[in-house]
Design goal:
595 residues; alpha+beta; seven-stranded antiparallel β-sheet; five-stranded antiparallel β-sheet; 29% helix
Length: 595
């Protein structure tokens, strides 16, 4: 079995497994402390409640050593890329890392995920020696784009229309605050008190991580800490390679579609194709996106290759091959990326070129992950789910006495059915993994009222294991405001697997009770009046396996729970449910050919 080796590993010392585990535990606790500090100090609900942030420590070569478990893969995964991007900027500008620096970075063409996900990087020094980096990332609710909020900027014509760009900016230079830079930021973003407060929370958490990492190095010695980290990266790599090697060698393909802009007259902006080819060769896997749609030069659904597409791939492979239900916990570090090789043609939607806009890359990236799962279903049929119900991201905003309020809501989607289990209902899917924002928090901070919030009924894909239910949410404006939406899954339903039926598409409706207006999945800065209601409907996951093989008792329980109607039980599952909600076994057996 071949195994890649990082350059630093050749020079690092040896360490026994017990000492490595002790150091790993300390590293993990540092990252967890960073995450707790960030959430407790943050002003916005997107960090405080939804946990849309990342916190990690890196070695001097940008290998990730550990990460906070209280955060999302789409924030954590790109962190090594952020720091590699900062290094590129510094090399281009002749800049250096120095003790006391705090660097701000969000460029999608230099490793970042997209503009609103801003990193604050603190280089860690022991004396004059650079020994690593302490980094936090987080989603910020406004970065000065053409419309309020930092999502739903779906009509951005280029990267400049998406908001402020920070390419390796020192907001603290050798410990001195760059006051002019902070003034520039505050003067060019909406809800600046909240956003600046979140940024300062990130800096504080990053500094805490740097302090704790330095304490750990001084306790154990830098050589021991790096040796332990290399030991753990080798271990994580070995465990992933073992699982890849168990897959049958071969090339597995699938296609998926992103809705795009359904009302746009240009067909190149609709039904955007994602083509995945996954080649298993020994203990390595090669993922290729050749054949995917070309980039859209003036719409922001393009996906940064390093900060989004690669993260979707890493997430899927880790999740299905090292499932924590069937495997011991595997340390999350850069060793897990070594067996994975990713290619996407430059100039495609999966690897755009500057200045193509990328801010609305969230939903397309989920389709990348879902399509890769579809391809791998041919090699690992019992380890994947059927098609997922994609998410929506809604930016609510308004003016109160000349000051902006901004709130971002991620509406829950669903998973497809899996071997032995139904799909998960009303959850953030795949690399999103953020938490539900409580209604009490929304209504206590913003002029919004949540009129309805529930699971969809009778919409999951039928199967031996049914697809999960998506969510329905109706939000009323109590004062004049605006809404912008990034969505998907209105045109292409989640796919079924191995005889399972496809799930259901989503929807977006203005004023569902009267003066109903159906909206596309992507809208920018829709003006709303007091009393207007925005209804979001999430797609439902696809089914897994032949519906007729589903246990009739499970079908009856779904009817009792409101997931399935009696009519669907009869049509799709061939189960006859009586008026008393019991199973007519004779009629069911006859329908199923068992009479």
């Amino acid at each position: 079995m071949s195994k890649a080796t990082s350059p630093a590993s050749k020079t690092r010392g040896k360490i026994d497994s017990i000492a490595a585990q002790v150091i790993w535990g300390a590293l993990e606790n540092i990252a967890i402390e960073m995450g707790h500090k960030l959430t407790r100090m943050s002003y916005s609900s997107i960090i405080r409640e939804s946990e849309d942030f990342g916190a990690a420590l890196l070695d001097p070569d940008c290998h990730q050593l550990c990460e906070s478990v209280f955060s999302t893969p789409l924030q954590l995964g790109p962190i090594p890329g952020y720091v590699r991007g900062i290094k590129r900027v510094f090399e281009e500008q002749g800049e250096e890392f120095r003790p006391g620096d705090v660097i701000m970075h969000n460029s999608p063409y230099y490793g970042a995920s997209h503009g609103p996900d801003i990193a604050f990087c603190v280089p860690v020094f022991d004396g004059s020696k650079l020994i690593g980096f302490s980094v936090t990332t987080a989603h910020h609710l406004d970065i000065g784009a053409l419309v309020p909020g930092s999502c739903g900027i779906v009509d951005a014509v280029d990267a400049y229309a998406e908001g402020l760009q920070f390419k390796g900016i020192k907001v603290y230079d050798r410990g001195t605050k760059n006051e002019q830079m902070w003034r520039l930021i505050a003067d060019n973003i909406r809800a600046s008190e909240m956003v600046i407060g979140d940024m300062e929370a990130q800096i504080s958490a990053s500094r805490t991580g740097a302090e704790r990492y330095l304490e750990l190095v001084r306790e154990h010695g830098l050589e021991a800490v790096l040796a332990a980290s290399e030991y753990l990266m080798d271990y994580s790599e070995t465990m992933l390679r073992r699982e890849i090697a168990r897959l049958p060698d071969g090339t597995y393909r699938a296609e998926g579609f992103v809705d795009g802009f359904e009302n746009d007259p240009d067909p190149a902006k609709r039904d955007l194709k994602i083509v995945v080819s996954a080649k298993v060769e020994g203990s390595d896997i090669y993922v290729d996106f050749t054949g995917s749609s070309p980039q859209i030069p003036d719409r922001p659904v393009n996906m940064p290759f390093e900060g989004t597409v690669a993260i979707a791939v890493y997430l899927v492979l880790r999740s299905i091959l090292l499932d924590t239900e069937t495997h011991e916990y595997i340390p999350q570090n850069s060793g897990l990326t070594r067996p994975i090789h990713i290619h996407a043609p430059l100039g495609s939607i999966c690897n755009p070129t500057f200045p193509a806009p990328t801010i609305a890359r969230f939903c397309p990236g989920n389709i990348v992950a879902s399509t890769l799962m579809h391809a791998l279903s041919q090699a690992a049929p019992r380890q994947v789910s059927a098609g997922i119900g994609n998410l929506k991201v809604v930016a609510y905003s308004g003016l109160v006495q000349g000051s902006y309020w901004v709130y971002m809501d991620i509406t829950e989607g669903s998973y497809g059915g899996r071997f032995g289990k139904d799909g998960l209902d009303c959850v953030d899917t795949l690399y999103a993994n953020t938490r539900n924002n409580p209604i009490e928090d929304i209504e206590s901070h913003y002029p919004l009222r949540v009129q309805r919030y529930e699971m969809r009924e009778d919409a999951g894909g039928a199967g031996t294991w049914r697809g999960g239910a998506g969510s329905i949410r109706e939000v009323m404006f109590l004062s004049p405001g605006n809404a912008s939406v990034e969505g998907d899954g209105h045109l292409h339903a989640p796919w079924g697997l191995f005889g399972g039926k496809q799930g259901s598409c989503g929807d977006l409706v203005l004023n569902p009770q009267s003066n109903v207006r159906k909206l596309p999945a992507m809208i920018s800065n829709l003006s709303l009046r007091p009393g207007d209601i925005l209804k979001t409907v999430s797609p439902c996951g696809g089914g897994y396996g032949d519906p007729v093989k589903r246990d009739p008792i499970a079908v009856m329980n779904d009817v009792l729970d409101g997931f399935v109607s009696r009519e669907t039980a009869l049509r799709d599952y061939k189960v006859v449910i009586t008026d008393q909600i019991t199973i007519d076994e004779d009629a069911t057996n006859e329908l199923r050919g068992r009479g």
